[in-house]
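Example record

The entry below shows one chain as it appears in the dataset: sequence first, then structure tokens.
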Amino acid sequence: MTKTRHERWVVGAMYTGLGLTVIATVLPYVDRATSHLLADHIRAGYPAYGQARVDSAVTTYLVLLSVLGALGVIAWLWTTRAVKAGKRWARPAATVMFVLGTGVSVTALLAKDTSGDTGLPPELGWAGMAPCLAALVAVMLLWRRPGVSRKGNQ
């Protein structure tokens, strides 16, 4: 079956979100191996922490972010499959996943820990928000009827 241009755009936005989710999930590991933003952020918030406690906190964040990333990947694959199959429930399911994912991402970006600073450094928090932009585009495209123009073409 040939997909319409509209359907290709929707699926493309969803695959973009999947890719951004994978990148956001891998990024903390890249940080741990290179720039140490997360470790430095924890060290700045908790100056009394020794290296072992900082490493433990980084590991805890890596596990948490990995679980969230894996759940995000599963959600993207599930909703993309539903959209491609033309399931009636695909639009509401994608919308619910968008709301849940955005809620988790905003929480990760803005939540303060006991030091009074955000739990994640801003760079990692904003990276977690990137898939939400693709999700917003996908949901907007899903709810927009194909072939309908805002210029009044009937």
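Notes for this example: Residues 80 and 111 are 30 Å apart (CA to CA). DSSP finds five helices and no strands in the chain.
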